[in-house]
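[[Sequence with tokens]]
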Amino acid sequence: MPVKPAPFEYLRAASVDEAVAALASCGADGREAKILAGGQSLVPLLALRMARPDVLVDINRVADLSDLALVNGVLHVGALTRHSALATQTDHPLLAEAARWIGHPAIRSRGTAAGSLAHADPSAELSVVAVACGATVSVVGPGGVRSAPAADLFTGPLMSTLAEDELITSVSFPVPARWGFAEFARRHGDFALVTAVVADGAIALGGVSAVPMRSAAGERLLAGGGSVGEVTAAVCAELDPTGDLHASAPYRRALAVELLGRALRQAGVPC
């Protein structure tokens, strides 16, 4: 099994425009380019040669991509904001709680907010929180800047609507008044089997479908004053998880019900 990357060209971008230009140039030449930010997902794939880009575009020296700013109840998170910074900020308690569950300290010190969303893991903590909070992403490409709901970013496991010549520059997370968060992993720091997030009237689950899942039936009951038992029963009826080598479908379903109950109680929903 390979333990080092295939050869690639390395480019250190000095600006967002330079990074986008490099991505577009590679696309025009028929070469594959990848953005290097935290590298916590990309580097292992490179080492195993599961990813073999021709060019790595390093954006770590681009200014103003690590800013955190709370404006009118929305936390604006720069693309290069590390998970460790999200875990220690106090403006968005739900986001801080979720970030503390990501990997281990070494991973949190390098992993980035935008990198996590771009990777599009359906059980990743930030992806599920983004969907629950109704977060929006700012994306830059050759055609300029576009904004999109985070929920529209994900199309399947490790698949997104990002074009090959686009990159995320920031993510905007509305701050919920009431929230709850629960997840389960077999070992501390492992990838979550299931994640449950409640943000005001929204319910999102990770690890039970190809993308982070919102529950329309559960949210209707929650808005109508439903109890924890009533809401979890409605959500359970919507679930159709698939099994894999980590957990069977019935196990994921049972986990989702238990974890959602915990998140709802944390959000102050009556039992």
About this structure: Residues 179-266 form a domain with the Enolase-like; domain 1 fold (CATH 3.30.390.50). The mean pLDDT is 95. Residues 249-266 form the longest helix (18 residues).
